[in-house]
Design brief:
Layout (H helix, E strand, L loop, with lengths): L3 E5 L5 E7 L9 E9 L5 E6 L10 E2 L1 E4 L6 H13 L8 E8 L3 E9 L14 E7 L1 H11 L4 H17 L2
Parallel strand pairs: 3-8
Antiparallel strand pairs: 1-2, 3-6, 4-5, 4-9, 7-8
Length: 169
């Protein structure tokens, strides 16, 4: 069964229309989430995308995906983490770091401090090939070079980590 997504306008408002999984048409946007799951000792979980993925197969990335029709962003983040990693999250655990507007989508970025081991991950083989924990520098290097995230994205990551460190989150 195909995923159904809400269509958003250029101001991130739902239009009342929906679309099947794919690329939004001109002037339309979809909503995505990225989840930066990290341990109390500051290690970030990254996942290797399955080789059968349409976009970026075999590349290392963070947990994420599209928000389904009717879902709020935070609910999409919780669902994607559960589906891809088998890790259950509660809304109170998520820290909203920011929203980016791209050509065809908005991306909401969340950080989640969670006490877990890699052995707790029940990875969805259709989405994820492998998981590992990396330090902050390696996570940032991955975002900058492997996934070629733009400067605005990197600024959101750096600001979020700074806030997390200041507040002991």
């Amino acid at each position: 069964m195909a995923e159904i997504w809400d269509v958003y306008d250029e101001n991130a408002n739902r239009t009342g229309r929906v679309m099947e999984r794919g690329v939004p048409r001109s002037g339309d946007y979809m909503l995505c989430v990225h989840i930066y799951l990290y341990t109390p000792d500051g290690k970030f979980l990254v996942q290797k995308r399955a080789m059968n993925k349409e976009s970026h197969p075999g590349e290392w990335d963070v947990t994420g995906g599209a928000v389904l029709s009717g879902e709020e962003s935070i609910d999409g983040a919780i669902r994607e983490t559960q589906e891809e990693l088998g890790i259950k999250l509660d809304k109170s655990e998520l820290f909203f770091a920011g929203r980016l507007k791209k050509k065809k989508n908005f991306t909401d970025i969340y950080f989640v401090k969670k006490n877990f081991d890699l052995s707790d991950c029940l990875i969805q083989k259709e989405e994820v090939e492998e998981v590992k924990l990396v330090g902050y520098d390696e996570m940032l290097e991955l975002a900058l070079n492997s996934r070629r995230r733009d400067q605005e994205y990197i600024s959101i990551l750096k600001d979020a980590v700074e806030k997390i460190q200041e507040n002991g989150m």
